[in-house]
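pasting for the record
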Amino acid sequence: MDAAVIDAPAPSRTAEPWYLRRRLILLASVVVVPVALAAALNGYGPLTEESALRMAFATVAGMTVAVLGAVAALVVTLTRRRSIPGVVFFVLVLVFVTTWAVAAVSGAGDLLLERLALIDDLAGLG
């Protein structure tokens, strides 16, 4: 007599939705959105107070999106119950992105002050 063989279907791994892919979240939030904001809101004409403020706010907005994207990637990693090395990696990515964003925002503030001082000096010449 033959033993009963049960053909159980192999567990299928469902593909995760595109908006929950960690690499896509990081790429879009850390690279694409800040570059797009900087390109769209750059002062291509003469330097004015409005263009200086617009460029500074574009930097701040881009860095805010970068930090929020790194947090989102970490949350996706934690909710999908990834391995410990993956969690540690994304915590390190979050620390790096946050440090980079704080430095960029500080630099944007300094650059804004320099540009406004330059505008004021040029207005005093005329």
